[in-house]
Design goal:
single chain, about 375 residues, alpha/beta, Aspartate Aminotransferase, domain 1, Aspartate Aminotransferase, domain 2, seven-stranded mixed beta sheet, three-stranded antiparallel beta sheet, globular
Length: about 375
């Protein structure tokens, strides 16, 4: 049986070339604990140092500013909880954040931290004016994702950071969806904390990282043996970390080229659907400030989940793989979208291996299924 066309790269990605072979070494031959002083600890310890350097290069950071975690969600938790534990104050986030941020904010609220949730406009953007109005002398941290995992909308992070720093607060961004898909630099963004998830850019699942700008102090969430400078105790997942490092090295070499190729393929898919279905196709998210690989559209007179169920030749989704499966996406609802349009939404996220032939075939399948739905 032929495998479905994979258009769900925002949920997870296949391993980048060379990643599996790197990981296998640290699962088999060099299996030692990196904290061991004897010979078996040498190679794993060196692998971690190499990966820290590789990821730092991708982010434009220093290796000493990278702390490895078990996933992107853990990195988000460390950023928010680690800052909020330092002193009293408030935390600002926004309505379309990943659940890892929003749920952590609920936990902080239960501990007495005031949480301010900013609205977004119809494209999913936070406005500079809304953030300016919310910032106070008591603001500890602003946490706003770099790009949304459902719509692909990219936030004006550098502008928001400037405002935040003028108010004396720190800025965290969940960049799980942009690392490896867009060229980025922590210095250009100006952020103090940035979340990475390995499996979103060709690395393995179960490993992530938090960039922590030099001088920023955090209280650890996981305590124990003092690994990762005491900020994330527990024996490290060396194979996963080595794999993420290899994926980062691959991304450094290919991210710019892949970006423009993905934009062309994404826009071709949108054009083909609009050509076949006309005004029934409605773009969700910002038309230009968007991830190069992400197309979220609603097709009138359809229910996205039902439409995709009828096309087993395509592997795609209606939104985040981290939501509970409800028919209406909280992200689209926060953007002010009506129930019918939100229910008709599908997310098509491409990857470096996606071909033009696949795009054309997927568009024809989606159009045929939608025409049958609307007839």
């Amino acid at each position: 049986m032929t495998s479905p066309i994979y258009l769900d790269h925002n949920a997870t990605t296949p391993l980048a070339p060379g990643v599996l072979s790197v990981m296998t070494r640290y699962l088999a031959t060099d299996f030692g604990n990196p904290s061991s002083a004897h010979r078996y600890g040498h190679a794993p310890r060196h692998a971690m140092a190499t990966s820290r350097t590789q990821l730092a290069e991708l982010l434009g950071a220093q290796p000493s500013e990278i702390v490895f975690t078990g996933c992107g969600s853990e990195a988000n938790t460390l950023a928010l909880t680690g800052v909020a534990a330092t002193r009293a104050g408030n935390v600002i986030t926004q309505a379309t954040e990943h659940p890892a941020v929003l749920e952590t904010c609920k936990t902080l609220a239960a501990r007495g931290i005031r949480i301010i949730v900013l609205p977004v406009d119809e494209h999913g953007l936070v406005t500079v004016a809304d953030l300016a109005a919310a910032l106070t002398n008591d603001t500890l941290l602003v946490s706003i994702m770099h790009a949304n995992n459902e719509t692909g909308t990219v936030q004006p992070i550098a502008q928001l950071v400037t405002l935040t720093h003028e108010a004396g607060a720190l800025f965290h961004t969940d960049a799980a969806q942009t690392v490896g898909k867009l060229p980025l630099s922590v210095d250009d963004l100006g952020v103090d904390l940035l979340t990475v998830a390995g499996h979103k850019f060709g690395g393995p699942k179960g490993v992530g990282a938090l960039y922590i700008r030099s001088g920023v102090e955090l209280t650890p969430v996981i305590r124990g043996g003092g690994q990762e400078r005491g900020l994330r105790s527990g024996t490290e997942n060396v194979a996963g970390i080595a794999g993420m490092g290899a994926a980062a090295e691959h991304a450094v070499k290919n991210v710019a080229t892949n970006q423009w190729r993905l934009v062309a393929m994404r826009d071709l898919l949108h054009h083909l659907l609009a050509e076949a279905l006309g005004e029934r196709v409605m773009l969700n998210g910002h038309p230009t400030h968007r991830l190069p690989n992400t197309l979220n559209v609603s097709i009138a007179a359809t229910v996205g989940a039902e439409l995709l169920d009828r096309i087993p030749q395509i592997a795609a989704s209606t939104g985040s793989a981290c939501h509970d499966g409800s028919i209406t996406s909280p992200v689209l609802a926060a953007m002010g979208m009506g129930t019918d349009r939100a229910a008709g939404a599908i997310r098509l996220s491409l990857g470096p291996s996606t071909t033009e032939e696949q795009i054309r075939y997927a568009a024809s399948l989606l159009a045929a299924a939608a025409q049958n739905s609307g007839s």
